[in-house]
Amino acid sequence: MLYQPDFFDLINDFDRFNGVSFVSSFKIIERQLLPRFKQVNLVLGLEDQRTGQNLNQFFNVSRRVKELTSASEDFLNRLEDGTLQLRFTKDQLFHTKYFIVENNDSFIIFNGSMNLTKKALTNNHEMLWMYAGQKDNPADQPIYAAHQQLFQQNFTEDSIDYVNRKLIGQIRGKDKQAITAIVTDQTLDQLQNSELHINPDDITKITNADQQSSQRFALVPDTTARVIKAIYTAKGNKRRNHDQVRQQVQQITYQSFSDQDETETVSADSLCPTPMWSYQGNQIIIKDSHDQLYHPLSFPLYQVSREDVVNFINIIKSFKYNKVKDESHQALSAFMYLMTAPLIWKIRQIYRQSNYARSADQIPLSMVLIGRGTTGKTLLVRDYFKPFIGDHSSSVQYSEINGGNGSHTNRAVGFLNNYLQSKRFISPMIIDELNDNFLHSKVATNAIKQWSNTIDDIHNVNIFAMNHNAGGHAINNLEEITKRVYYLSFEAGWLPLDQQRYDYNILINSLNDHIYKYVTGELNRRLNQLSGFDEDHLISDYLYLTKQIVKELFKNFNLANELADIIDDNYNYKVDRNRITWKMLIRDDDFKHVAFTNGDDQRFTVSKAIFNNLKGSTTYENINQTLDNYFNMFPREAGIAIYQYDNGMMLSIDKFDHFIGEPLIRNYYNQLHQQEHDQNSMSAYLKAQAKRDEERSKREEQRDQQMQEVLAKLAANQKKPGLFSRLFHKD
């Protein structure tokens, strides 16, 4: 057994290549096969062997035109001289991918799951059976002959020309419109001559809207669907006016070239991981993991259990009661965005069409969970988000899509752009371990702005988990980025296991996609039937309808009070950062520049001098600018900032404390006034004591005076003569 061999290293010593395989583009043929082989014969089979892909392969005229117009001269020459022959299945689908490489003496046969696509050759886990033999060895001849016979049947009887060699001479020197007419003629001639066998039931799944809404079908791009509808009636019959059909098909193809970005509708087969959710005809279309077919989302309320809802609530609560600091608000807002993600594009369209003055670029196309170490960001995207949306594929790492963690971000931007430009896929792209230089890269930030400003069709969103270490890049807080990227910060660590209220294993094992399917399906229904009242609120808050649906879901199970204190307000990273900044400013200053006005227990002032020691605030102009910046950190609607004056600002005590999440200023106010109260009480006691002493002294003086008066009277009475003394007084 060979483990992770390079496929092309195994086939270097051969000069002829025959195979049946899905091929994502001509480039892999041009770059890998043509330089190695004198003769290449390929039947372009289907990766998942689905009818919709077969229809897309034949009827997607614009794709073939773009492939031909972008092909190299060598590629066209090889097609014209017959040393490269491309055909594709016309009737029975080829389930097996196999390759035969040979020279005059030896051969190798490969058989298994691998296609000739970049992801199959570099990323996927593929299994190939390999048989190497000699043509003159009797033991090897039967297996060689059997595979050659099989390929000849597949190549000559079971397939038709994908590009006829005679076509090459006709298209040389022609512009895109002329080439479109030539390729359209070939396609319709093959159809008219019955070279390709099309199942009428497969056609009506595309042309008949009633069938499409009720049956499972394989999804095709919008351009392909329009071409099929131009050729066939709703009942699946070919239209009779052939000239009109040719003109309509050409017009549809021309229109696909006139798109602003001139990007082709991206095939699901070229994306990794394969998207599961798409959008078509006002419906969310889900890929069934068992038969790989798509069917309209239908998930009524009764399929959501109370246990589903309770487990979801407990996951949010675990970010409060299992952590050293409450971060449940961030977790809930992250889930709200996740449940809205498949229809962000639709809400952006409503913003564009609305009479209300709000721009669609106010709705972020990306969400970034920021954290340091084990703070819960990866736990959310890997262990909670993916099973919550029904995605059981492996986590995608940033280093995988960017080819490493270097400073260049071109490959990652290209990968994400491939998804965003699909025009039909709506599954969120979840990326773990985003490098923090991504949001500072000019390539990435320009792409983020371009995506937000120019993509107006169906698209997905990106969800990242980013490790932000101290000493690394500061978070890009420029307004042009923060309105397009939804930041959520997770910085608190986890409590010891014996102190955590909720068991992680129970939470993760009880998680499923029931709530996600119900909420997203209900959101799509309401957006398709949007009332003026809901539009008004949706324009003010793009998550409004999602939150309403979730609250109604809680109420349905008598859980209306759960998460009620955080469910209505969206977490705001900038406000959260400002909250921490103000808290640290006051604490580091130790309240030296905080003051109160006598008799006012509702307001306090902060002196401008508090900013003197801040880095960069050394001049008069810088200090004044810092004063302005700090004053503007408070949300206006919160009523915290009362007014700003030359030497500082006046703020509300209780509203400031509510903003920072603790009674910092109120406690300081009470502490100061308790000291004053104690001092006043002592002064009052001393005054009362002095008054009592004074009153006692006065009373004692009064008593002394009264005694003196009594004694004086007594003395006077003793000296006064009596009656007998006066009678017998002698002269």
TrEMBL record:
It comes from the Bacteria. Residues 90-120 form the PLD phosphodiesterase domain. Residues 690-706 have a biased composition (Basic and acidic residues). Residues 687-707 are annotated as: Disordered. InterPro entries: PLD-like_dom, PLipase_D/transphosphatidylase. Coiled coil: none annotated. Pfam families: PLDc_2. This is PLD phosphodiesterase domain-containing protein. It comes from Limosilactobacillus antri DSM 16041.
